[in-house]
Write a sequence for this structure.
């Protein structure tokens, strides 16, 4: 059985990348991370990639280039690894169609909130504030396709509700969300890989 190839884009800690690397190694995932790209030098996730023997590439945007020019260069780099899927796992740059248009239905994104909620940065903090304001009693995590430039939106691949308990601090909620993300991301990738094998994707 052919294993799928993944390119993972990160900007920071890379705990989700680590979950994917671990699942790839322990047989939970029929896929290999073939490259990790970070727009930020010094991202901890780069060290995680190196430890796993995966190419770790720092790829910052220069001030002189437009977003589109950067994204086209990024697409060239990613394409050179022939990925079956491109995983945005804590990638904190908004991508333009200069990148997205090059990989139709191959880009997936992880968002630490449920579909249609708390798009953009600090989603967990905003969900916690909404809970304290009696607006919500649960939040969650989703993995979705990235088909256009809309932020944290796109056809949902999978989602998981995370209830917020009265005793939770913000730190507790963050820990719950991150643990949930690690599981859901691996599960979603495996679901797509299985579909590819069955010829549905
Ligand atoms: C995750 O919560 C992800 O959903 C969000 O940024 C965080 C990245 O965490 N977009 P990590 O770098 O994978 O640890």
């Amino acid at each position: 059985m052919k294993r799928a190839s993944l390119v993972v884009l990160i900007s920071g800690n890379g705990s989700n990348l680590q979950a994917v690397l671990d699942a790839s190694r322990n047989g939970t995932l029929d896929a290999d991370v073939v490259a990790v790209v970070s727009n930020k030098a010094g991202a901890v996730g780069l060290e995680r990639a190196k430890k796993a023997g995966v190419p770790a590439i720092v790829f910052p945007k220069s001030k002189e280039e437009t977003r589109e020019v950067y994204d086209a260069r990024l697409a060239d780099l990613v394409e050179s690894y022939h990925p079956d899927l491109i995983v945005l796992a804590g990638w904190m740059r908004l991508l333009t169609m200069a990148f997205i248009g090059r990989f139709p239905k191959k880009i997936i994104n992880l968002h630490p909130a449920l579909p249609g909620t708390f798009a953009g940065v600090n989603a967990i903090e905003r969900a916690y504030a909404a809970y304290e304001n009696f607006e919500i009693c649960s939040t969650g995590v989703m993995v979705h396709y990235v088909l256009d430039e809309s932020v944290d939106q796109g056809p949902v691949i999978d989602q998981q509700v995370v209830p917020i308990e009265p005793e939770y601090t913000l730190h507790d909620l963050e820990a719950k969300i991150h643990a949930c993300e690690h599981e859901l991301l691996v599960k979603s990738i495996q679901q797509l890989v299985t579909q590819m094998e069955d010829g549905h994707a």
The longest strand covers residues 31-38.
